[in-house]
Structure formats: C-alpha cells, structure tokens
Sequence to fold (193 residues):
Amino acid sequence: MTAIGVLGGYTLARFAFPGRGALMLAFLVTQMIPLFIALGPLYLLMSDLDLLNRLAGLMLVYVAMLVPFSTIIMRGFYERVPVALEEAAQVDGASRLVAMVRVVIPVMLPGIAATFIFAFVQCWNELFLAITFIDSEDAKTIPVAMNSFITQYDIDWGSMAAATVVSVLPTLVLFAAVRRYIVEGLTAGAVKG
Fold:
C-alpha cells in the first residue's frame, strides 16, 4: 500500500497530465464516503469472487481502501521536497527514476515512515470489515478474535486484557523501529542554520 502510495504520490506531485485534478478529487471522495455504504456491494463482490473467509480477500479490500489514503499523504510530502534536488541529480546524469530513488526517497523517509505507520495501524486495528468478511476460526484477525470475548451476557475481561497487550506489541515494535525517522520528520526545519 505504501509503495503504491509512494509512486502514486510522486506522479501526482511531479507530473501534469489530463485528469490529474479529477483523480485527486476521486481519491479524496473515497476517503469521505462512510465504509458501511459500500459494504453491501463489496460483500456481494467478495462472495462472487469466492474471497469470503480468506485473508487474501481482506487484504485486497485493505489495499483498495488505503492506496488512495497513502497516495494523498505522499503527494503532500512530495510537494514539500524541492524539484531542484531532482533537477540537480538529472544534470549530473541521473535519470528521473534514479534521481527519485537516490535523492528524493531518502529525503522522504520520514513521510514514508509516517504513511506506513498510519496504514499499518489502520489495517491492524480494523474490525468492521474483518468481522463482516471473515467467519472461519482459521482466518480470524486479532480484532475479530478479541471481539469473541464479548458474549451476550458476559465479557471475559481477563482474556481481553491479555489479548490487548499481545496485540499492541507489533505496533510498539514498529514505532520503535521507525521512531528515528518520525523524529527527524517532526524536527526538520525546527533549527535555523
């Protein structure tokens, strides 16, 4: 999702092409539509494609849901990077792709890290779609499994608390791994020099 957002954001920020504004508007509109409005048609589509009770089907839905979000966020980060950096690399003989990979992407690492974390947390904590499309015990995601601790007359608080602690660990590890990039992104430009 983030990789597609990186490429899509670069395209929307750096190239002028017919329909760019309409595409950006379409991406923004998809973020404004409540998810439950599309739930019926999405369920029928998943059923027709035999993707119900499969994690691959749920991942496809997550990708379709988060690619516009990632693209919009990455476009904003790209617009803050001066085009002169790429032009200088191209004057030195680099192609546009090489300039993007070797010059722009390293500057964009804080934005890429932030976008990745937002997308990861959204997918990791998502319950509504997962509980709708996944019924089998083998394919349950963590939020769906945690939801099973709530019964009609009781809530198993001890098991839910333990599952919550375990489910937060991957997010904490991810934040610890990319903390440096996020701090760099937040403090960029804070000191004049």
Q: What stands out?
A: The CA atoms of residues 84 and 152 lie 62 Å apart. The chain is about 75% helix and 0% strand. Residues 189-193 have pLDDT under 50 and may be disordered. Residues 157-187 form the longest helix (31 residues).
